[in-house]
Hints:
With 130 residues, this protein is of the alpha/beta class. It is globular and about 50 Å long. The longest helix has 19 residues, at 109-127. It has a 5-stranded mixed sheet with strand order 3-2-1-4-5, with helices on both faces. It has helices at 55-65, 79-90, 92-95, 109-127; strands at residues 5-10, 14-20, 25-31, 70-75, 98-103. It starts with a strand and ends with a helix.
Amino acid sequence: MSYSHAVVWIDHQHATVIDFTFDDQHVVAVEREGGQRKLHRKSGFPGSGKAATDHHFYDEVATALGNASEVLIVGPGNAKVELHHDLQVRHAALAKRVVGVESVDHPSDGALLAHARKYFKRYDALRGDA
């Protein structure tokens, strides 16, 4: 089923994708393979010390977003920005449907859905769709 809006909450380990219409919703949880990962290496190793981008994880999130016409990306850290950049580079058609990237702590699914509904209500009103 194609939904008009989707919100993805993401950190480096987990993603929750909720696609929804006015009266229906569909929740998908995406977990990074391999469990917890260490984001920074110990000193003394060459390179930046930052773990490489997990393209497979971001691909799974992109698949979970499906055909939503408008996407909001939220999360507590840098993963939301990394996902948006990965979509721009590797999934250009989906990246064009991203309407916002915001910082949001760790909400429940209900709180995340309420935040997204409020965001898209304002977004649609500003576009003149209300």
